[in-house]
Amino acid sequence: MQKVLITGITGFVGSHLADYILEKSPRTQVLGLSRWWEPKDNIKQILGKITLCYGDLVDLPSLEIILAEHKPDIIFHMAAQSYVDFSFLAPVATLDTNVIGTANLLEAIRWLKETAGYDPIVHIASSSECYGQVKGNEVPIKETNPFRPASPYAVSKVAEDMLAFQYWLSWKIKTIRTRMFTHTGPRRGEVFAESSFAKQIAAIEAGLQEPVLKVGNLDSVRTFLDIKDAVRAYWLLVTKCTPGEVYNIGGVETMTVGEMLQKLLNLSAVRNIEVKVDPARLRPSDVTLQIPSTDKFREVTGWKPEIEFDQTLQDILSYWREYYKKNA
């Protein structure tokens, strides 16, 4: 039986990836790296079907013990401090988790490869944030585009990306990197735009919030992708793509954040919602143009998005409506 380890399995992407693998590849054993205190809400539906391995990315011995015991064939490295805004407040913590944590994971794999011949496929989830503020003539953004990281989070993802490449060059650790563009769906953290807007709308509908919706920069342009299409892409990645390479993954529906918000507002029965810019939601430096070229990934895998973004937004809003029903 094939073994897969997902770091960050309790998070948004990690939990959806576990769901997908269990459904589509039932003969695969799913392991999840988790810290003991992390909430299990996102994986409560699969707790009896997975094996949780308690450890921490910033603690190298814990990773060595887990890998030596289980020797997963595939590692999806999804764990990260992924909130851009928080990275401005806590840059050192962001770098520690994302850069040192990734280095520890790769070192643990290298040690086990040298001592026991262990040779897994390792997916390192980098980010479109690496590209930063691109120029108008650089869209759609290709993998060869220069890096201009505009936040400590983006810097950490550049480092992760380059560490993965270096471990392939130096030690032939079979890393495959992705730079995922905006992806969303149910379970998305409430601090992220689509989820934040949907949660506020659901709270207003439930009479728990005044009809005022707080927002940040609505002019940024994003290409949106459903989380289910994203994790399907990740599974294709480790089965069809080449170690040492990097691939952009993203959707096909492009719009401003404001246009996305209007779609959500149109799904609400409440029609008098005021939209108000909250200065606290504006970043010191922002990335306002993210449109990917996914040609390289599509040519290798044949993948393309299947879920329309209107359905994604409906799913997110339904998720938060259900949340308030359960917590009324």
From TrEMBL:
Residues forming the NAD(P)-binding domain are 5-315
Q: Where does the sequence pass through the membrane?
A: none
InterPro entries, sorted: NAD(P)-bd_dom, NAD(P)-bd_dom_sf
Molecular functions per Gene Ontology: GDP-mannose 4,6-dehydratase activity
**What does the record give as cofactor?**
NADP(+)
Spell out the reaction equation it catalyses. GDP-alpha-D-mannose = GDP-4-dehydro-alpha-D-rhamnose + H2O
Pfam families named in the record: GDP_Man_Dehyd
Keywords assigned by UniProt, alphabetized: Lyase
| Function of the molecule | Catalyzes the conversion of GDP-D-mannose to GDP-4-dehydro-6-deoxy-D-mannose.
**Annotated protein name in UniProt:** GDP-mannose 4,6-dehydratase
